[in-house]
Give the backbone structure.
Amino acid sequence: MPGTNFKNIGIKYRPIKSELKSKRKVLEPERVIRWPFMKAIREGYKKSFFPKINPYVEAYQFRDNAWALFEESMDGAGDLWMYLIEGPEKIMIIDTGFGVGDLKGLILKLVSDPEKPIICVNTHNHYDHCYGNAQFDECYCSIPELHLMRQKNNAHVWDYLFNEKGEGIWTEFDKNDVIEFVPWEPIGVENGHIFDLGKGYLVECVYITGHTAGQCGYYDHVNRDIFIGDANSCGAPQYEGEPFAENYSVQAKRDQLRLFKPRFDEVNGVFPGHGMIDQPSKALNYLLDACEWVCEHPDWVEEKKTRKHPATGVESVIYTKYIQEGSTLRFNRDNVYYPDDKKDLVLGRDLKAEDYPD
């Protein structure tokens, strides 16, 4: 029924055996539809695990030249996936996790030629997707993401993970395994920007904002896989002075998905930043359908929950629309639509990296 609040439907704490060095102190709820997948892949699927190099990451090879890298959440907000593609001449790492453990060393162990240069790209600026950037000299993101990505380029990004005794608050791990901070250069790229991994192996940046102002995906033209980060969620602006606050909207996500829709059928696999991976291209249709529904019926959703922001203490009501086959679209009721006069910016038109210098 419209507006019904189904609290915690199908959610309980569901353990999965783990060889990782990280040990949970605060268990996270897992939806029943997602847990069997995660349990099957982590307990039964062949994986590469090199604890002497990086005891915090499991690697799953899902294509001849591509891996999904699993890391447990360090802050109670959800286990995550990073992705690795080896091209003919260059390597691409998509997202870098929490920056605990030697991610770069693991990458060089997995690929066939460790002499190839590594291109680092981020889907968005959140802690679990970019705090390993300090292992790389340059890291690419969308232009609207530059503002907050630059703020994450500092040595204190890990402070919130520990209590006054230096112990992990949510997850137990060795503080000495946090990587050394080295400043890195954030580089903004336009919607449709092409990365060439050599000999015409192309990977395209695809804007899918909403979760953050510059959330984007990366589309592998050869394997025809798209890596979408946290594209199935919409946020509300949390930082003053953000130049692209209008991008935190369901309508922005809908319109950008509409732009990519003519190519949905060519997609082979959809790989989000959390949960079930290697989904069929229908997952993009389901996400777009949910956005269309919310834009037409924003109050007709399955869940409405009051949540207090951990940093500001401000309470807001989070709406949740279920997405077919296992995911959800979360949004703030005040951020369903963007102003009409911002449409060109929202869609990435007229955006140039040189217009947003350091």
Observations:
- The longest helix spans residues 282-296.
- Confidence is low (pLDDT under 50) at residues 1-11.
- Residues 11-355 form a domain with the Metallo-beta-lactamase; Chain A fold (CATH 3.60.15.10).
